Fold this sequence. Notes:
alpha+beta, 3 domains, 5-stranded antiparallel beta sheet, 511 residues, 10% strand, single chain, 3-stranded antiparallel beta sheet, Phosphorylase Kinase, domain 1, 37% helix
Amino acid sequence: MAFYPCAIANCIYDALIQENSCYACRKRFCFHHLSHPLHECSVGEGRGTPGLIHTLAEEYEPETSQILECLSTDMIKNEVESLRPGHLVENVELTNTWRDLASNYLQGQSNFHIKINFKDGISWFMRIRRRISRNYTDEPMRMNMESEVATMNALHDVGVAVPSAFRKPSNSKIHPKLIYSYVSEIPGGPWQPFYTSIGRVHPLPDMSVNHVRSLAKWFIEMQKATFDKIGSLHHNSQTSEVEVGPAIGRYPYQSTVPYYNGPFRCSADYWLDLIDSRLRLIRERRYCRHSAEIWLYLGLLEIREIVEGCEEMRSTGPFYIKHDDDQWDHIRADESTGEVTGVIDWEWSYTTSKAEAFNSPAGYVPDLFWNGSNEGYSPREIVLIEAYASYDRPDLADCVKNGRKYHRLVDTLRWMQFLPLHINSMRRAFLGLPDDHPGLPEDEEKCIEVLKEKYKDVEGLKYLLAHPFDLSNASQQVKAIRPKKKSMGPKTQAKKVTEKAEEGPFGENGD
């Protein structure tokens, strides 16, 4: 959900949800202005300069400098020692410059990490949310962080190898704009042999076999945490017990309270609610650029029909936790043995059916998956299936054998880059059809025409077709809004730079 207003002054619409900021000017635009002449740097459909590479400062500033201004070693030290009584901090690896924070090997796309070392050899991380990767405001971001902590707490409490996690203390002295938690360090690192195609195409060497078998044991332990609804975990405000609440996905469903929907009684209800939310946003011209809206709308209607017809997704529990970004690199392992030491990064996780939760990780799918094939398993998946069988868990082996439908569903709805290949592959996966079973025309234009006819009575589609994008009054808007500008002299430029530098870490009033 985009919480940013359109960059055009006085425009009443929000920036599009699916569109990132323009590559050239770094601004966000609404449906009407993305490829409008008022967006002066637009190329093609407002995408800015293709291939433009931004500097480190453009990618990270001023956020990194602002974060450092809000922190001190003593602040962090006092806070973590209160969370771990009786244990003293040896040092906090807090850098002095924004560049060091931005380029630190510990940083990811969505979070900054500051390492804290205790005198007994234990290490924690202060995990701070990055704002550039989230087009929304503080409250849904806090809900997201709270859910991640609750998820790790629930798994840790039943003995699953995940980080210990701690919420920001209610009496914290650290600036309220920083949204963060503390997590313990998991030893080991990503299983490096899986960085290549080993295990997706070629048979696994013995050490990697041991790694996958260890992961099977980890999943078996995870089954101890069960829930009665589908959604994301949070702490009950009265009892502090972990319970299921709204599904806190990658984007809020709306820009006002309660931000997210749920919890849900079954997997089908969860996915249909997500699909219906996107259909509504496309119809309201709030989701995507005009050139994509018809195809995305039609694709979502097809996926809706597929999900609605899946009886397996009507199961009403019990439900289990699903990692929302289960690539190979979030699975930590001992580099000398391959043994799994834990799984990290539980942001966006949710509870779901057994069939989806114990499917093979997304990082285990075979290379042919990306060409539309549902047939066969990767060597990684084969070892996982065999491991479950050897541990007398044929039920979990069946989750891997029959789980391709969930890979298709999650991947397609996450990236929203529909092609006939994606829709056909998903339908075949859900219906158990072979790869060569005929589907929609592979030509996109022909496919669109077929789907237009199929869904011609859907009101949302009828509206979009009857109200195409119109730029006929664009030139008049430009003349009215943008009279010829005077150039800014060097003294004025210097004054503006000075004024900006004198602002506080989050503006003049810290908001």
